[in-house]
Amino acid sequence: MRNLFAFISGALFGGGLFISGMTDTAKVQGWLDVFGDWDPTLAFVMGGAMIPMAIAWWFTQGRKPALGGDFPERPEPKIGRNLVLGSVLFGMGWGLVGLCPGPSLASLSYGGPGHWLFVGAMLAGMVAAVPLRRLLPAT
């Protein structure tokens, strides 16, 4: 049953990314081009993600998931070096390519070799992050 809900959730997420244009690199780069031909439509996508998540955090307080386990804790609102460094690296990849992890996976079936290259580089970065993080002092 859990896998069925995971499949349905993933399908809804991927469909939402496709319908909203998040898998279109030109649309994403248009959002980031604030000094050029700026496309503000992705602000609605971001709002459409943040508002339901805020409601979900509120709704899950003191409850248990129907399929077992626990809901994740709210993230610590602390801004540290790891958060800033990770955000900068994420933003650089998003700005250069116009994709982030979710849309890059959703666009593999039609995106061409550039999308496969991006996903390969993203996976390599995820693997390299573990040993590199050990080199940085904890903050």
Helix and strand succession? Answer: HHHHHH
The residue ranges in which pLDDT falls below 50 over 5 or more consecutive positions are none
Number of helices: 6
Average pLDDT reading: 83
Main sheet, how many strands, which sense, barrel? none
How much of the polypeptide forms β-strand, as a percent range?
A: under 5%
The shape is globular
| Number of E-type strands | 0
Care to give the gist of this entry?
65% of the residues lie in helices and 0% in strands. It has 139 residues and is mostly helical.
Describe this structure in words.
- This protein is mainly alpha-helical and 139 residues long.
- The protein has one domain (2-135).
- The protein has six helices and no strands.
Output the keywords:
mainly alpha, 6 helices, 65% helix
How does the SSE layout of this entry go?
Layout: H1 2-20, H2 25-32, H3 42-59, H4 81-97, H5 101-106, H6 113-135
